[in-house]
Design brief:
Layout: H1 3-10, H2 18-25, H3 29-41, E1 46-49, E2 53-56, H4 65-72, E3 80-87, H5 90-95, E4 106-113, E5 131-140, H6 150-164, E6 171-173, E7 177-180, E8 183-193, E9 200-209, H7 214-219, H8 237-256, H9 262-268, E10 277-281, E11 286-294, E12 300-304, E13 307-311, E14 315-318
Parallel strand pairs: 3-4
Antiparallel strand pairs: 1-2, 4-5, 5-9, 6-7, 7-8, 8-9, 10-11, 10-14, 11-12, 12-13
Helix pairs in contact: 2-3, 4-8, 6-8, 6-9
Length: 331
């Protein structure tokens, strides 16, 4: 039995007896109990009561595949969309298909990831139904070197999709973080493989915090926020997913037609770091400087004591201000 079917029966937060659930789903009570254990293992708070049965205590906004496809309209043509209860990583679901024809326009979403990918090998924390965990595969008939600004274009697409839903205020932190009120609310992870010098397969992974438990936000090692903290009337997760997918698909088609530079100006308008004093952490050194934005290829422009330099990767941290008003030196 699919545990999602059982969860669907519990979404009303009312008591349901094990017998009634077993009859409704056409399985044994033992199967019901095993699936209750599985749902609890995913972090769901399900109460058991003698002579009462089971009751879901969480308010869950499940993703609905049909609602997402309906919301995408004509943009869904040619797409294949999967909504999983859980997976290690939606990106991994698609990077495993690198080199295969069915990667193109393949979409995977999950309610929960137990090995979600962040930058530099970090895990993207993915509580059950607490965010959007979405990956999209795309095949480009163009040289990988012409796609340097693709991550910027994808960030702009997410910001524009949210703005279209009345959720404006997203800023973009180079190279791929989504920021709200100075705190991280999402990120984009691009993974690519090139079989030839003129083609490239790309998986675009999007993680967006929708409603995170307060204890989880406090426990993370950086300031984070979610849409729920800023937008009390935010749209449901299925609508969020369909809007983001429509914008992403249009962006990828435009980039495939040579329009990646069109998004650099839009990215600059949302640049979170421009003119800020930062530390750029590289594998073998840390540099201090002031961000001067990005160039037309999406490379970071950093002004240091040695002059203006360009960087294609690295981790940026805004330098804290000392009590005397100046920036603290690197130690």
């Amino acid at each position: 039995m699919d545990s999602r079917a059982l969860l669907g029966c519990l979404l009303d937060n009312a008591w349901h007896s094990g017998h009634a659930l077993a009859v409704q789903l056409g399985v044994s009570r033992t199967v019901i109990w095993k699936n209750i254990k599985r749902l609890r293992a995913l972090g769901l708070d399900i109460e058991a009561g003698h002579s009462k049965g089971y009751r879901l205590l969480d308010e869950i906004d499940l993703l609905e595949r049909s609602a997402i496809l309906d919301g995408m309209g004509a943009a869904a043509n040619g797409c294949r969309l999967e909504v999983l209860l859980e997976t290690a990583s939606t990106n991994q679901c698609l990077t495993d298909r690198f080199g295969q024809a069915d990667l193109h326009r393949q979409i995977v979403l999950a309610e929960h990831q137990h090995g979600g990918k962040g930058r530099r090998g970090r895990v993207w924390v993915s509580p059950f139904a607490g965010g959007l965990y979405l990956s999209l595969g795309w095949h480009f008939d163009m040289a990988p070197t012409s796609l340097n600004a693709l991550s910027l274009a994808c960030g702009v697409a997410v910001a524009q999709a949210l703005a279209g839903l009345g959720l404006d205020g997203i800023q973009l932190k180079w190279p791929n973080d989504l920021m709200l009120d100075g705190k991280k609310t999402g990120g984009i992870l691009l993974e690519a493989r090139s079989e030839t010098a003129s083609t490239c397969d790309v998986v675009i992974g999007i993680g967006l915090n929708v409603r995170l438990p307060c204890a989880l936000k406090a426990a993370l090692d950086q300031p984070v926020t979610d849409l729920a903290a800023h937008y009390g009337t935010r749209p449901g997760r299925s609508r969020l997913a369909s809007s983001i997918l429509v914008e992403q698909l249009a962006t990828l088609a435009r980039v495939a037609g040579g329009g990646v530079a069109d998004y650099v100006a839009a990215w600059r308008a949302r640049d979170y770091l421009c003119d800020r004093q930062v530390e750029l952490h590289l594998p073998e050194q840390t540099l201090s400087g002031r961000v001067q934005g990005v160039d037309d290829n999406g490379l970071l422009l950093l002004k240091t004591g040695a002059g203006l330099s360009k960087f294609s990767s690295g981790e940026l941290r805004v330098r804290p201000i000392s009590k005397n008003g100046g920036f603290k030196p690197i130690t």
